[in-house]
Description:
Layout: H1 10-27, H2 33-46, H3 62-74, H4 78-102, H5 107-121, H6 132-152, H7 160-182, H8 187-234, H9 238-253, H10 260-266, H11 278-294, H12 311-314, H13 328-345, H14 354-365, H15 371-386, H16 393-399, H17 415-418, H18 421-427, H19 431-437, H20 449-460, E1 471-473, H21 480-484, H22 496-500, H23 506-514, E2 520-524, H24 526-529, H25 553-556, E3 558-559, E4 565-569, E5 572-576, E6 583-584
Helix pairs in contact: 1-5, 1-18, 2-3, 4-5, 4-6, 4-14, 5-14, 5-15, 6-7, 6-8, 7-8, 8-13, 11-13, 11-14, 13-14
Amino acid sequence: MAVCPFQHGWGWRVAAVVLAAGGPLFVCMPPWTDVTLYDLAARNVLRGGVHYRDVFDTNFPGMVWCLALLRGLVGSSSEWLRLADLAVIGGASAVLAVGLKRGGVPPSRLGWFVAACALFYLFLSEFNHVQRDGWMLLPALLAAEVRQRRWRLRCDPSGRCSVRRCWLAVGEGMLWGAGVWLKPHVSIPALAVLGAGSVLLYRRGGWRLLAGDAAAVLAGGFLCGAAGIVWLMAAGAWPYFLDIMIRWVPGYLSYWPEGLAFRAGYLFRCFGPWSALHALALPIAAYWLYRLIAIRALPGTSLAPVSSTSMKRLSDDSGDQGEGPIGITLLATLYVGWLLQVVVVQKPFDYAHVPPVFLALALLTVGGWNASKLLVLGVLAGSLLLQLPPVSAAWQRMQQFPLLERWTAHPLLDRERTGLWFRCWTEGSTPELRNRLGLYVHCPCATNWEELVQIADYLRHVRPPLQDGELNCWHDGTHPLYLLLNLEPATRYLHYGTAFSIRARVAEIAEAVVSSRQRYVVSDLFPVLGKPADPPFSAAPGQALRLPPDFPEPYRQLFPWNQPLVFRCGRYCVHKVDGPLGVIDIHP
Length: 588
């Protein structure tokens, strides 16, 4: 008979409250500019366009495939996209929770783990949602689960177990391959898990078992890779994909203004108290890696399980210790591999740090203490304290502690924000609610939705009406106009800032702008001014609109700022292309 999880303590009750309070707010938050790019690319694919030729993208196409499938099934609303994100991240959390449960973690502690995951992810800024890093965590965890399940098989003389084990190995390879199509960075944690599994396989069955298993995993990976290549070739995107990866991506990856030391330090302070978990999780992971390497297991010893017993019991090497869908050894290696790719390979973007927090939470849950409960209560209590006025210099210094410098009051305790809960149910993701719920609205790459809607209304009434290829959205935050107006872009370049950062290709980008059929260009004052734009200015009757007085002179000579300004709403300007284009670049 099924048992209600709420009978197992306050953790599940807190999890239910957090999900109920944060779910509608999460669904109505605005999509980030990266999501807009994926969405436009998916629309292009569904309309029969050629990816990479029609939409410039320095990424592998996995996310575009996912959004094209989603859009083909449920339509174009941002609410469905965010529900899909909630399902993917919730699925990853569920895989971790099931692994912890089967390894012996009590239901009461699992409730606090789920509450911690929800309290963390639902209330992050929109910059971290519907991102490839979060989505590739799910196939990675499923691959580790398949590896653990394969290890638990007990073979009989009939040999049927070997066949099943082989197919599971192929399935694991396909899951890793799916993760690579989402983002190739997952190959580093994949190699870590495969390496740990190879050590254990060799100790159990020697080189023969290890070679057969590795061949099956590689076969699955190649099968998934071949399927993606077949799609690219059939869609006509293969030569453009190769061109992007060979000529453009090296220039994009070479632009790293932050050094390794900065990225390593940012690991511990990215998400305030949540990122501080790594200081506790890393020593635990290091212990299990040491145990894997230095302690030679007996031939019949299974993988160390995810267990709720004490560390003494977990470290006991005698006999079979039981099995969990995700063993702690694999969890530790997956965690360390993920940290390596975040610090060494990735650029220091916040969304890359989301999966390691989930893995750290799971790793800390297997000990004999309820880390998730302490964290949930600590975050909420600390947020209450942060809302109090500074009472002393010592209190101010504590708030500036390096690991906590990005710790702000949790959005769940923002009464103005949570007061929008009912409106989210009744109105959906309106421009006003997006502006009020977004946590990154007032920054250069973001979108002010209420102002952009007014820009869209103006462009709907220009004569003759705009056609595909006649609108050029110059800055990242203006790209939703293509979706609002149902128009195709003037060029294949959406994130011009990203494209122009590849300095060797500036002339190629400028040539595409010159040869386009653009009639109007929409620009954003915020990236140039570095602050919110002044209140809208007006011109005398018969006079043309002009840029703000404090607009930097060097930028006035660049396209599109050198084109006539015909309309402005807040931070956004509409330019009518008229006359020589001048210098085409993002920076003077």
